[in-house]
Write a sequence for this structure.
């Protein structure tokens, strides 16, 4: 591990962290713009050209707001919860490959992978982190000492455990075909054919479970405004609130990047056509942006599910279907080989 | 480097485990248990058991501890008064028993540990095949029957829990 | 490299903490947590031996222990919930209906 290795790794961490922060900031703007367009309005357009400086204004506002810690909360856990949420959401990018190994036009002696760490348990690592993310919400709900927050926390615990199962099971199909848990290998395996064509059922389950896992509409029961005020973050203000906000968007970004990596060839170009002269990193970003837009699109189109419907769907429909998917994949692999 | 990490993680793990027992509020106990289990996953990583480390975090902190927290929140358990009953006979006995156990284990360990014959899975072999692949292969060949038996166990647990938790079937 | 005995000492200490928790605390949930701690101490021993013996069997046993622990936690917590329904308490000293 030379000095150069450390430098490159630190640089990669810095660039990816900065890029994710930037994307998260602009997703808040995109959300408001898209929702505006869907509801035949303009959305924010006052701060800067086309409202492009709006995230900056929002950030400044949130930072300078008074940080209220209510009297009746459990202080230690109340402060800890947003941090857990954010760390769990942001640490996942370490294993997602955003491009093939490159030597940056001859700047470096040997090609470095465009990924902070190629862990051989990449997918499990992301799962481990996403399962840690539940604690941010649950502990926030509990420590707020408020019945709405508590209900939000309880709901998210049950919801995220239930859908994590379907999410994990739906990915097993991909793992069976790629023979590896390393995301780099999974992407390399898709140079000829994206897994979405081989795993259509798995992909649909993955996508729907992803909505539940990130607490987005139509499954945003933990923070359902009409029933629970704002659910788990009712008592939060200022930067702590914005940390929850950021981690929700960061989680959306993670799950989109995962969908792209697992089912849509990651940084690979179109199947059969190659990259069409477009750099792989742009392919990756483009695909992720499409999925992010899809998240916003669904949010402003579908109504919220009822809680019992959500749980029924998770346990009685998606879990059996994802098991069926594993069975079909296994059968297919045995018959083809 | 791994040696330093080992001592740090062990210290964190033991301290957190101790706090699990000492905390009066169940939620704090669960939080410290999570810290303890995550440090243990770090120790597994140092030992080269990547799959087990990931499974440790996913199963223990991702599922079991969420379940604990869920039950505590559902029952709305509060801080308990430990002082109420004072130092009972049980506590004294417990403390003494634990110390004796610890002393015994230390005494055994002070003697020389002799290892049995070495197995075929040296670090190089595992690195070549990948830890997950190696564990998976063993699981589905040598340990196939126990593996299938666990599925029955989980099914039984599932049915049992539904029967226990439903007020009226 | 850290000698095997250090792993064993750490796991012995962890196990002892778990035992102490079961013996000293009366809250059913804490007792349960302490049992999980004991299981974890045993897991550490298994994995350490598996590393130092160049064998994978230890890691596989740990996999089974985790499965059993998950099943046990689910059943145990369901029992705690149903006890709480009847007694409004999770104190194991108050669950003494069978005692004469």
């Amino acid at each position: 591990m030379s000095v150069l290795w450390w430098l490159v790794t630190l640089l990669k961490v810095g660039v990816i962290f900065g890029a994710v922060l930037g994307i998260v900031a602009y997703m808040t703007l995109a959300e408001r713009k898209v929702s505006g367009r869907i509801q035949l309005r303009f959305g924010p357009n006052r701060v800067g050209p086309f409202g492009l400086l709006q995230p900056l204004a929002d950030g400044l506002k949130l930072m300078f707001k008074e940080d209220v810690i209510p009297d009746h909360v459990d202080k230690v856990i109340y402060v800890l919860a947003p941090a857990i949420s954010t760390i769990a959401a942001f640490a996942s990018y370490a294993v997602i490959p955003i491009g093939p190994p490159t030597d940056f036009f001859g700047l470096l002696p040997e090609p470095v992978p465009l990924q902070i760490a190629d862990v051989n348990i990449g997918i499990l690592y992301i799962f481990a982190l996403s399962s840690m993310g539940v604690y941010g919400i649950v502990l926030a709900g509990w420590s707020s000492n408020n019945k709405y927050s508590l209900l939000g926390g309880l709901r998210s615990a049950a919801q995220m455990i239930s859908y994590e199962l379907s999410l994990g099971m739906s990915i097993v199909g991909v793992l069976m075909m790629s023979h590896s848990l390393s995301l780099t290998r999974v992407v390399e395996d898709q140079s000829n054919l994206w897994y979405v064509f081989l795993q259509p059922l798995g992909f649909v389950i993955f996508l729907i479970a992803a909505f539940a896992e990130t607490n987005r509409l139509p499954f945003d029961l933990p923070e359902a405004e009409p029933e629970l005020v704002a659910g788990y973050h009712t008592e939060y203000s200022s930067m702590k609130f914005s940390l929850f906000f950021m981690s929700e968007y960061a989680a959306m970004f993670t799950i989109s990047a995962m969908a792209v990596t697992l089912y849509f060839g990651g940084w690979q170009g179109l199947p059969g056509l190659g990259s069409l002269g477009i750099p792989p990193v742009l392919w990756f970003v483009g695909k992720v942006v499409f999925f992010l837009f899809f998240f916003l699109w669904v949010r402003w189109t579908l109504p919220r599910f009822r809680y019992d419907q959500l749980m029924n769907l998770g346990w009685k429909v998606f879990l059996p279907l994802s098991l069926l998917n594993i069975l079909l994949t296994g059968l297919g692999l045995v018959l083809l080989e | 480097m791994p040696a330093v990490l080992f001592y740090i993680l062990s210290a964190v793990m033991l301290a957190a485990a101790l706090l699990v027992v000492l905390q009066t509020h169940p939620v704090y106990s669960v939080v410290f248990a999570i810290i303890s289990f995550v440090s243990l996953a770090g120790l597994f990583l140092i030992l080269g058991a990547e799959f087990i480390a990931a499974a440790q975090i996913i199963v223990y902190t991702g599922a079991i501890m969420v379940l604990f927290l869920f039950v505590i929140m559902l029952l709305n358990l509060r801080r308990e008064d430990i002082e109420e009953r004072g130092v009972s006979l049980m506590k004294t006995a417990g403390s003494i028993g634990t110390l004796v156990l610890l002393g015994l284990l230390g005494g055994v360990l002070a003697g020389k540990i002799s290892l049995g014959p070495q197995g075929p899975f040296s670090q190089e072999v595992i690195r070549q095949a990948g830890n997950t692949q190696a564990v998976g292969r063993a699981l589905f060949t040598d340990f196939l029957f126990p593996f299938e038996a666990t599925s029955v166990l989980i099914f039984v647990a599932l049915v049992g829990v539904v029967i226990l938790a439903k007020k009226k079937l | 490299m850290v000698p095997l005995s250090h792993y064993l000492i750490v796991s012995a200490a962890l196990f002892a903490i778990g035992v102490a928790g079961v013996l000293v605390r009366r809250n059913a949930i804490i007792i349960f947590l302490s049992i999980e701690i004991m299981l974890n101490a045993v897991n550490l021993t298994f994995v350490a031996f598996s590393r130092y013996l160049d064998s994978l069997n230890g890691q596989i046993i740990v996999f089974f222990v985790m499965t059993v622990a998950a099943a046990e936690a689910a059943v145990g917590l369901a029992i705690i919930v149903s006890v709480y329904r009847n007694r409004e308490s999770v104190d194991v000293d108050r669950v003494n209906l069978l005692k004469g």
In short: Residues 4-90 of chain C form a domain with the Helix Hairpins fold (CATH 1.10.287.3510). Chain C has a mean pLDDT of 83. Residues 57-87 of chain C form the longest helix (31 residues).
